[in-house]
């Protein structure tokens, strides 16, 4: 693992702990994103430079391969023609190009391997950036929710009527109950008065009937005399 990757791991490992301790998580995330964005730009430049370097190495490898094969063919032609001296010269150059081919092939393989690692790190950086950016969006939405909630709470406190609504209805319920009790009491009184009148009427009627019966009996007795 490269030093560059280790630095990124340390930063990413600490961000969650720092978020919990931060009073302004969005600002902390923005700082992290800015650093990560700079690292991405740097990594992209390295990828471009490594790619260009690899193309140059590949060109050297191809040229060395071509010249090696060409000198070997020339050596064969010289041997067929009986020109041993020319054949040896061609073979000497072939050996030089073989050495060059081996050296540049090794450099090319090393560069390709490094480029693959760098591209992998670049992809991880981009994924890390997107992940933290999404977390930033979440914290922004969360803080906006908190801000609106605080404003609603302040408005409710300023209004001052929210907590008294149940009491207000309780008092209204008590008043209505009192009115209902008074109306019921009046109805009960009227009913009692009506019953009294009816009972009084029945009593008077009974007395009159008794008096009528007494008078009739008295008349009957007088007639007999």
UniProtKB/TrEMBL annotation:
<feature type="coiled-coil region">
    <location>
        <begin position="101"/>
        <end position="135"/>
    </location>
</feature>
<dbReference type="Pfam" id="PF04012">
    <property type="entry name" value="PspA_IM30"/>
</dbReference>
<dbReference type="InterPro" id="IPR007157">
    <property type="entry name" value="PspA_VIPP1"/>
</dbReference>
<keyword id="KW-0175">Coiled coil</keyword>
<protein>
    <recommendedName>
        <fullName>PspA/IM30 family protein</fullName>
    </recommendedName>
</protein>
<feature type="coiled-coil region">
    <location>
        <begin position="40"/>
        <end position="74"/>
    </location>
</feature>
<feature type="coiled-coil region">
    <location>
        <begin position="169"/>
        <end position="225"/>
    </location>
</feature>
<comment type="similarity">
    <text>Belongs to the PspA/Vipp/IM30 family.</text>
</comment>
